[in-house]
Amino acid sequence: MLSPAVSQDVSQLEARDASTANARFQMAAQQIIKGIETGAIAPDQGKAALQKIGFGDLEVGPSPEAQARQAAVEREQGWMKAAQEAGGDPVKLASAAAVYRPELAVSLFNQQEARAARATEAQRNFELRQSKQEDDFNAKMRQLDIAEQQGGDKNEIARLRAEADSRHKTLLAQIAREGNQARILAEQNKATLLQMRMATQGAAANQQTVRRAGQLVGALEKAGLPSISASLDSVEAALQDPKVDVEKLTGPKSMLPDWAVSKEDRAARQALQQVFNIVLKERSGAAVTNQELERLKKEFGQGAFKTKDQIEGAITRLREVVTKHYKGIAAGFGTDALDFYNQNLEAIGGKPLITSGGASKYVEKRKTPDGRTLGRLSDGTIEEVIE
């Protein structure tokens, strides 16, 4: 049995050791808690460590500042991964930026908008160059006519006329080639701008709708339908111009040289020629091929349309063919995708050709063995169709 003095010393030593151990545990707990709060230690790992030293009942977690830093790190990691997966695709890059870097998404969209505007301006400049070349050539022809009327050397005038005509045709061909490239570039930039706008709005819309609307843009562009529609717009506007003499667009009077017709007639000829060359010839394979279109191509080539009514009727028939094809493509993506496409198209200054009014809202329909009709919406939902 220990003496009272010794027992007292032992008790004091044990109390001191317990106090020291407790102080160490508290210090360790404080370090773990600080690590959790600053984000240096994962909450699950930190709580497990606290449990081992007797502080498992403490409720601790990252501080708001640490949570914000961690969220920023995760966003940056997500952005780097998404940007790499985008592979340089501007639409995918803008879509990723809308999730991880909204301010960059706005900047990317603005940059594409500026590119589309420059491409459209370049296309317009080629049209102006063509118009100026036509005006210069017509002025030259009028000068030679005056010279001939005033008794000039007919042989020399004929030589100058042939020389001017050859140069004119060469320049027009060059302008047409470069202008066609500018037009294609402008169309591509507009399509990209539209897809980027839809992609960056993905957070506020059904993802299936956004995806299908993007696919719809691609399908329409592949078919060349936006370009066809724009060309037809120009022809339809020209045919409504009272200053245009339609008989000089096709038939016998179309053989009159451009310098012998009005500026309005020349513009109408150019618009009609664009429909023939770009739509019916260059893009017939990519656009729409059916019996009605083949008949129109043959009739146009034979000069079968000579009066205003005949030409307007032919353009109306072509518009119907294009619209029908437009509807056929759009039907495969659902009315919600078409509405979303039209909404964004109008936002960038475009004009929808068709709307979802009267169209089916179902991407696919099928009959069941018991005779019911089921429809699949663009988001994958299946519901019974009441017809």
Structure description:
The protein is an all-alpha fold. Among the domains are: 4-62, no CATH class; 207-359, no CATH class. Helix content is 71%, strand content 3%. The protein is built from 12 helices and 3 strands, in the order ααααααααααααβββ. The chain has helices at 4-38, 43-52, 64-86, 90-100, 102-149, 154-200, 207-223, 225-239, 263-282, 291-301, 308-330, 335-347; strands spanning 364-367, 373-376, 382-384. Strands 1-2-3 form a 3-stranded antiparallel sheet, with no helix packed on it. Strand 1 and strand 2 (373-376) form a beta hairpin. Helix 7 (207-223) crosses helix 12 and helix 8 (225-239) packs antiparallel against helix 11 (308-330). The radius of gyration is 37 Å and the shape is elongated. The N and C termini lie far apart (101 Å). The model is unreliable at 282-288 (pLDDT under 50).
Helix and strand layout, with pairings?
Elements: H1 4-38, H2 43-52, H3 64-86, H4 90-100, H5 102-149, H6 154-200, H7 207-223, H8 225-239, H9 263-282, H10 291-301, H11 308-330, H12 335-347, E1 364-367, E2 373-376, E3 382-384
Antiparallel strand pairs: 1-2, 2-3
Helix pairs in contact: 1-2, 3-4, 4-5, 4-6, 5-6, 6-7, 7-12, 8-9, 8-11
Radius of gyration: 37 Å
In order across it, which strands form the biggest sheet? 1-2-3
The percent range for helix content is: over 70%
Secondary structure tally, helices: 12
**Termini, distance in Å?**
101 Å
Structural class: mainly alpha
Given the C-alpha coordinates, what overall shape results?
elongated
SS strand fraction: under 5%
Low-confidence stretches: 282-288
- Give a quick account of the main beta sheet: strands, pairing sense, barrel closure: 3 strands, antiparallel
The count of strands amounts to 3
Average predicted local confidence, pLDDT = 75
How are helices and strands ordered from N to C?
HHHHHHHHHHHHEEE
Multimeric state of these chains?
A: single chain
